[in-house]
Amino acid sequence: MVIGTAVVVVAGLVIALEVTGSPTAPRSSSPVQTIDMTMPHPYTPHAAPGTTDDYHCTLVNPHLTKNSYIISSQFIPGSAEDHHAALFLVPPSSAASVEADNAGGKGWTCFGGPLPGTAIVGLAADPLLTFWAPGAGVDDFPKGTGVPLAAGSLVIMQVHYNLLVGNKPVKNALILRTVPQTTSLLPLDLNLMLAPPNIPCPTGVTGPLCSRAAEIASLGQRFGKTAVEEAEGIDAICGENPMDPPAGDTASCTSKIGTTGYIVRVYAHMHLLGVGFKMVLDPGTPQAQTVLDVPDYNFHDQKSYNLSTPIAVTAGDSVNVTCTYDAALGQQLPLLRKAPPHFVTWGDGSTDEMCIGIAWTSKTLPRPHATV
Questions:
Q1: pLDDT at 4
Q2: Is pLDDT of 99 > 50?
């Protein structure tokens, strides 16, 4: 069901994107299985010393006995403390080792990445299925496509809890709709693109954390050495000096598409200072195409977008993501006013920032009349 649109420019033509986000009926007569997984135990968020955030991972088991495709997902937040969530697939070969971290079914702390000691820049350790953020609902993949889910796989729900909102017990849930892999669907590949925010305090605003060095030190105190390595690592990957990156109200980085095929689905994610997002294929060339333009980004209204016209790409093609921020929101939004003024970098906290773009690709064009 199309419930809204986002601006997209393809070959100079403005077109609409399907916006997924509300319940839909099954898309075919194929044997669709609905898998409802709820956290086995409520989790009460608790902040690490000096922070107002908690990242906690919960392992859930779809109990699949046959290889399948995921055709839609729905993360159901248990409370307003849920700031955002990332959902990861655990292949059968890794299931036993991840189960060992599961602390009697109660999960584990997981700042940065879904596994102990990992960071978001190393997400290949476990395939990322999708993100959830406020505004998302039922998340249908494009018709004719699906995400492979092998029998015996597990799912990690990595949830960011914002304790500026509260700290009551939370019990989240995840619903997957699957079909057998005997169904003729195109598997989707996920391309993750990051850019490093380095946002100074607004003009006229001062404080001990308004220098980047002080904020990086604070980031390490709040979330540990890995968080600093993550922020500085994204700077380096994007060709910036990690010790002195350019500061401003935008974050931009050019990445490479990993597979040849067609972009069929896109997503953008920032935190509360974000006001605009753009994804451009082949930037700076005569062939440049705007894949996704969200000029009025709203943290509380985030969705994935299925392209009504897929865009052809070749492995190695350049894609630029640019995030735009309004630093003044740090003093205007009631939630952010609870934190002291500070230089804003990439970080796990609700008062830190992120710039994430995702493009899902299929190796060939989805069938135009696909029903699932």
A1: 35
A2: yes
β pairing state of 108-109 and 53-60: antiparallel
Residue 343: per-residue pLDDT: 98
Establish whether domains 7-184 and 191-362 are of one fold: yes
Residue 309 burial by CB count (10 A; 0-12/13-18/19+): exposed, middle or buried? Answer: middle
**Per the confidence metrics, is the pTM higher than 0.70?**
yes
d(CA 206, CA 329) in angstroms, rounded, equals 15
Tell me the per-residue pLDDT of 265-288, one tens digit each, with 9 for 90 and over.
999 999 999 999 999 999 999 999
Give me the CATH code for the 7-184 domain, please: 2.60.120.310
191-362: CATH class: mainly beta
* pLDDT range class, residue 20, cuts 50, 70, 90: very low
Name the burial class of residue 235, with classes exposed (0-12), middle (13-18) and buried (19+) by CB atoms within 10 angstroms of its CB.
Answer: buried
Pair 256, 319: CB distance under 8 Å: yes
Element containing residue 284 per DSSP (H, E) = none
Where do the domains of the chain lie?
Answer: 7-184, 191-362
